[in-house]
Amino acid sequence: MITKSLIFFFCLLVFLVIPPAFYFLNSQPFNLNQEKVEYNLPYPGILPDHPFFFIKEIRDKVLELTTRDNLKKAELYLLFSDKRSAMAIGLAKTGKDTHAVKAFLQGEEYFLKTAPLLETSRKQGVTASSDFVQRLKLSNAKHKEIGEGLLKDLPQGQDDTVNRALDLNKRVKRKIEKL
């Protein structure tokens, strides 16, 4: 009788304890932290606190005015936007908060100009490549990540401008998803 109860207890142990333990060991860990967006921002060059930054702004304006193709202009605006976001990161790290927030807002304003250009070009019969649209989506997600990081790192007085830039980011996201 004792051997039967030992066998029964052993079987019960095998069927009730080991499978849940095996499942628990093989389950994926749950990570509460958001994953970082895998998108590399371009090198920003000189920053707005540099005395010759105005030359860079003049060059950007000339490029913007001389670029006639809508798709090329959208790519140019994406580049300007990404560079401004990279500038915001660099300026925030050096403690130049107002310059960082201004650069981030300018970047989102440039980004907002891309979607209407793509819509106009589509109406004209030329569509953007799927790679470019994917780059826009990744860049938009990266900009959101940067804006949320700025909200955490910068002092309270800068919140309104960063929130305005994040609102622009949401508007851009809605427009990009329609493409």
Automatic annotation (TrEMBL):
Highest taxon above the source species: Bacteria
Keyword presence, Transmembrane helix: yes
Keywords, comma-separated and alphabetical: Membrane, Transmembrane, Transmembrane helix
Annotated TM spans: 6-25
Protein's name according to its UniProt entry: Uncharacterized protein
Annotated source species: Candidatus Roizmanbacteria bacterium RIFCSPHIGHO2_02_FULL_38_11
